[in-house]
Amino acid sequence: MRGKVKMILFLQVLLSVLFTILFLIFGTYELNFTGILTIIGVFLLAMIAFIILLFLFFVTVLFFFTKTDPKNLFKHQLFNTIGFYIFNVLLRVKIVVSGKENLPSNNHFVVVSNHIEYTDPIYVKQVFNDYPISYVSKESLFKVPIVRRLLKSSGCIPIYRGDNRQAMQSILLAIQSVKNGQPMGIFPEGTRSYKNEIAPFKAGSLKLATKAKADICPICLYNMHGIFKKGRIKIHKGYCHILPRIPFEEYENLDTLEITKRIELLISNQLTEFKKMHPED
């Protein structure tokens, strides 16, 4: 993924330089202060135009894949490449990942994470780049036509809050997805914290994993809330630790509340460790 993004950046700079050279050859300008500003402006406009065209190209390609299998790994990795370019490169965000040795060996698992910012799912997908991970997502995201099509294409399932019948139907669809080999991600807090704290997990939030008889992959996010800090100039560093996977056989005799509390404690303890190592970076 990083290699692909480096190639994109190389092409962006190269094409922008070539466009600027063409302007120098054929354009009208004077070699004074105003002329230099004009040349710089042409280069920057070429950079922006490249970003717009690249985004349109990616969306077009993804639309061609909307009716393919939601587990299509190429499609998910293309999502991740777009996400890395926009949310890591353009927004200048570096996510430090630890615990990679705990990544699952197959696709029969559920990712359970604390929730700090609305961009968390994008960064979690990058961590699991080699897996076709999708999400149980809030229904409001599906109201935007393009977003709805892309979310459904990747296997995301809308959850309808306030409508218990539809919410149960969404969970049943998610359980079936996991059984069919598409790992799902959930945020049991039910909302974003916007800080390095964890809210109590919703009772029964782990039913997706227990009913699918799937392994649980807990992860802890830290320092994600500074990404959109007003006036930020320097690169923002966030952290993600992949905790040891919990096989289904290890928790199958626990009730949903017990396993929910266990994972909440694991993530909470890791947050405490992050605070010791990286006090509010």
| Count of the domains | 2
Q: Fraction of residues in helices?
A: 40-55%
In total, the number of strands is 7
Order of helices and strands: HHHEEHEHEHEHEEHH
Oligomer: single chain
CATH superfamily of the largest domain: Glycerol-3-phosphate (1)-acyltransferase
Structural class: alpha/beta
Low-confidence stretches: none
Description:
- This protein is α/β, with parallel strands linked by helices.
- The protein has 2 domains: 2-61, no CATH class; 94-277, Glycerol-3-phosphate (1)-acyltransferase, CATH 3.40.1130.10.
- The protein is 50% helix and 13% strand.
- The chain contains 9 helices and 7 strands, in the order H-H-H-E-E-H-E-H-E-H-E-H-E-E-H-H.
- The chain has helices at 2-26, 33-64, 73-90, 120-127, 145-153, 164-179, 207-212, 248-251, 256-277, and strands spanning 93-98, 109-113, 134-138, 157-159, 184-186, 215-222, 236-242.
- A 7-stranded mixed sheet has the order 1-7-6-2-5-3-4, sandwiched between helices.
- Helix 1 packs across helix 2 and helix 3 (73-90) crosses helix 4.
- The two termini are 26 Å apart.
